[in-house]
Amino acid sequence: NRPYHLLAIETSCDETSVAIVRDGTEVLSNVVSSQIETHRRFGGVVPEIASRKHVESMTVILEEAVAAAGVTLSDIDAVAVTQGPGLVGALLVGVVAAKSLALALDVPLIGTHHIAGHIYANRLIGRIEYPALALVVSGGHTELVLLESEGSFNIIGRTRDDAVGEAYDKVARALSLPYPGGPHVDRLAQEAAEAIELPRAWLEPDSYDFSFSGLKSAVLAEINRSNMKGKPIDAAALARGFQESVIDVVTAKAMRAASEFGVRQLLLCGGVAANRGLRERLASLCEAANLPLLVPPMSLCTDNAAMIAAAADLKWRRGEFDSLDMKAEPQLSL
Ligand code: KG4
Ligand code: ZN
């Protein structure tokens, strides 16, 4: 069989990314242009600026990805793109670029769900054994997804308020750390000599849902208390207390679900999978439970187009294509 090449585009938030992937899982190039520096001074992603930056970067990143892969556009067999969820203006740039390419090259268009991408980033590093459970933790999402078989997604738990990464970013902001704050809170937590005890939101005993807004409020209350007493804030102890609360809850719920549904593998994915404390705790729990754990390398955990190709490849192999009428869907469900 002749090798096939998917070109994938991801623009759902603040990274413009284009990847070329051969035969579904061999990443030939995965170029990511981050807008973080642009958004940093606003303390978060500004949607209007994100869209404009995607427009500016798209053709440059596209050419770079094709060149880095050592292919030409005539080698491309299908164009995949993140259809949603995400910022509507940002998604539109990717979708319009993908449609134009698909039309010009006369190849199929494959719309892809962003979270399917995060989950199937794991296809790029290993073989997924079903049933599997994915713990998706990112700036926009916190979900436990049961995968009974390839391409089937059953969301068994989700956040009722903030996403984990969002909570990290808000806590970081309250501690005057730069955006995005997750890595800074993680580092502080590792350095802390002790932890300030904070609440854990277990919700109903049988629930796989999450809630982080109460924890975030508890952090803000601690900061206010220190300020009122005129005491300096022990940022490290607070970061560690916050991180321990998050890790205790997400790992406990993931392990309970893994056992209840008898999964053969646990997949950790999304930007917060970069968190050292989370990776270490999950690794040791999985080892104790004799449950194989897949965690993509950092470059495949944060938003990138190779993960979109990995998810789109399942549709490619089933011949599930989209028409050129496909629309960006900011609220697309899995
Ligand atoms: O998956 P991602 O790149 O974008 C979304 O699709 O949301 O995730 C970005 C999120 C940000 O909230 C960032 O603060 C968080 O991942 N993050 C971390 C760490 N590295 C990135 N959170 C905690 N610890 C980290 N080491
Ligand atoms: Zn993402």
Number of folding domains? 2
Broad CATH class of the largest domain = Alpha Beta
Q: Which topology of the largest domain does CATH recognise? A: Nucleotidyltransferase, domain 5
Task: Write the CATH architecture name of the largest domain.
Answer: 2-Layer Sandwich
User: In order across it, which strands form the biggest sheet?
Assistant: 3-2-1-4-5
Helix content: 40-55%
> Overall mean pLDDT score?
95
Category from helices, strands and their pairing? alpha/beta
Bound molecules: 5'-O-[(R)-(carboxyoxy)(hydroxy)phosphoryl]adenosine, zinc ion
- What are the secondary-structure elements, in order, as H or E? EEEHHEHEHEEEHHHHEHEHH
Largest sheet properties: 5 strands, mixed
Count of individual beta strands? 10
The 3D shape can be described as: globular
Q: Radius of gyration, Cα only, in angstroms?
A: 20 Å
Low-confidence stretches: none
Total number of helices: 11
Distance, first to last CA = 32 Å
Give the percentage of residues in beta strands. 15-25%
The CATH superfamily of the largest domain is identified as ATPase, nucleotide binding domain
